[in-house]
Design goal:
With about 220 residues, this protein is of the alpha+beta class. It has helices spanning about 30-45, 70-85, 160-165; strands at about 1-5, 10-15, 50-55, 60-70, 85-95, 105-115, 120-125, 130-140, 145-155, 190-200, 205-210.
């Protein structure tokens, strides 16, 4: 965990692949508890530390997670995430495609979540229990075998980027669940929550934060 922004109302950290944002059946310590301990120790706070979780990031994904440090910020951030006022940009490493260009492209599918498999399935048209999913992407870097995509979510669905890119023939490097042929040595997938932009929930000042590139990954080889 690396703290990239903090004030009295919010704290933004860059999580490592493998860390969970909230507790689950594994019993592993969630990032939320790590952040609470950090605040308690840094500011010598007695008693329990308030920390509100406003969104999640899949366990194998790297990048930015926003937490609320006050109930006022939590209420406002929940509203902002729900209404699309928080803009998140992701980077994804996928297999190189012959027809890739630098223009923005849009993907639209209908996603069905399978709770037992913890996986989503994409369909070209509406089917029972499906939810509409949209994203935009463009190629911002290339290597011999891979290309780096910048991705902007237009909706927020379970495993949306992973599922939609795979359906489009571009499974994220290391993502065995969605069709990558091999795993990454560290168990991560090559998806990074790179940037977050929003209006501060209390001061109303613009907040723009970028995640550092993870060490030991291919994100740094594209020169962007």
């Amino acid at each position: 965990m690396q703290v990239v922004y903090e004030d009295n109302h919010i704290i933004i950290v860059s999580k490592r692949s493998g860390e969970i944002v909230q507790g689950d059946k594994t019993g592993d310590e969630p990032l939320s508890e790590t952040v609470k301990r950090y605040i308690k120790e840094k500011y010598h706070k007695p008693g329990n530390v308030f920390l509100g979780v406003v969104h999640r990031l899949d366990r194998p994904v790297w990048g930015l997670v926003v937490f609320a440090r006050t109930s006022k910020a939590l209420t406002r951030l929940n509203q902002m995430f729900a209404s699309g006022e928080v803009h998140k940009t992701y980077w994804a490493i996928v297999p190189k495609t012959a027809d890739a260009d630098d223009e923005w492209h849009e993907l639209e599918h209908w996603l069905v979540r399978n709770e037992q498999q913890n996986k989503s399935y994409a369909y070209p048209r509406e089917v029972p229990r499906s939810k509409r999913a949209k994203l935009r992407y463009r190629v911002i870097g290339r290597s011999d075998r891979y290309q780096l995509l910048e991705v902007q979510l237009l909706t927020g669905r379970h495993h949306q980027i992973r599922c939609q890119l795979a359906k489009a023939g571009m499974p994220i490097k290391g993502d065995l669940k969605y069709g990558s042929p091999r795993s990454n040595p560290d168990g991560s997938i090559a998806l990074l929550a790179r940037r977050v932009e929003f209006q501060h929930p209390v001061s109303r000042q613009p907040i723009v934060v970028e995640a550092p590139l993870p060490d030991g990954t291919l994100f740094g080889v594209f020169g962007v």
